[in-house]
Design brief:
The chain is α+β, with helices and mostly antiparallel strands. It is built from six helices and seven strands; from the N terminus they run βαααβββαβαββα. The structure holds coenzyme A.
Amino acid sequence: MSLSPSASRVSLRPATVADAPMLADWDRQPHVIACSSDRPDLEVAFDDRDWVEEIAASSDVSFYWIAEAEGRPIGVMQVCDPHREPTHYWGEIEPGLVAIDIWIGPAEALNRGYGTQMMGLALDAAFADPAVTACVIDPLNSNADAHRFYQRLGFTVVGRRMFDEDDCLIHRLERADWQARRAAA
Ligand SMILES: CC(C)(COP(=O)(O)OP(=O)(O)OC[C@H]1O[C@@H](n2cnc3c(N)ncnc32)[C@H](O)[C@@H]1OP(=O)(O)O)[C@@H](O)C(=O)NCCC(=O)NCCS
């Protein structure tokens, strides 16, 4: 896969079950495994998630975007309403939030500005719904690169908590803060 040195324009499309083999392949990338768990022994991220099942279960409260640059898939985002999505991963949490998880798939697509563009598109889409007050994200406490990435986008740390075995640093971006950044851009 050849990519230009600076970021091309990214677009988002909904994931389909046809993306399942590619997503399973990305789950074996070391940088994806590392963001999914602090366990050093893992060979695959996300407990070998069944992507066909996962994407088939998409709904208005939990779905996946595939990001493409120059027509090639380069990343994925899960977007959910943490108050309403059926797994209740976030536990007790207020309504009116959106939770986002993001990862770049091919290692050579890292650090080219794609993630920043992806988050910009996803946040604009999320805040287009007037009911959404803020976005929350749960990187591992150990994932310093992701903290820097989110904080550069305006997220702030609001707490540290365990999700099962995962020690996470919760980040949050308020609607007003995102709108102020967009207005200043
Ligand atoms: C976190 C992640 C999604 C960020 O995506 P990304 O596309 O690599 O991010 P960007 O390229 O927009 O920004 C990363 C760095 O590249 C730099 N950059 C941005 N545009 C660039 C460009 N055109 N050329 C070169 N570098 C660029 C940014 O300044 C940033 O620098 P920093 O690390 O010093 O802050 C990606 O690193 C990733 O998938 N990591 C593994 C999974 C993960 O940790 N996900 C988060 C789980 S919560």
